[in-house]
Fold:
Amino acid sequence: MSSNQQAPRAVVDIREVSTIDEFDACIRLQREVFGLPDLEISPRRHLIVSHCAGGWTLGAFVEGQLVGFVHHLAAVKGDYIFGYSHMMAVAAEYQNKGVGAQLKWAQRTRALGEGRDFIKWTFEPMRARNAHFNLNRLGVVIREYAVNFYGTDYSLNPAEKGSGVSGMDSDRLFASWELRSPRVEAFAQRMEYDPGAAERAIEIPADFSALLKSDPQAAKREVLRVREEFVQALADGYVCRAFDRNPEGPRYLFYSE
Structure:
């Protein structure tokens, strides 16, 4: 192979996790990707019980080895049944290679096949990469902001260990994935969909992980600022539908409902 040729991408097989060994591989991947203590790991029994209760776990496999998974719960609100995406993890060496997107689109296909049209999940407001993925690639809408959703965070991302931060509130955004919306349908077909001109924006730090390491107190202040601005924007009747990846000042973009 010449130096200017790229090695072919590994073939990723997306299928349901079904064996004890595969569930255990999901546990190992949680530890590797999130650096969670055992208290916060979703254990094998949780994954198995949720499967028996109408949920499922889709795995991404390369040559038989689990390299990613998404855990989908059955959720109910009154008579309405929908999906709740509790967790997704992708091994470090397979991140930014489309594996997460394959898992999410497979999750949508499976949910639609079950007659569902809506999935929700949470993600951290200060993570620009996650915001871009959820809003610009999947087409979610944000209508809810949860203050300190999980309580004071138990640990930091492995990349942020040693930052000296403790007691960071676990604020989360709720991603609403309307599976049959025109925008999501367009993205599913790899087509563009212009949300139009934004009416309001909220900027976040360009590199929150670096800010946590260099100035933990400034990072906390930024979390509180973004919280206040997000809660106010939603209270004013706006919804977030897009994200500006400007490397100098990434921004959430808001539109009238």
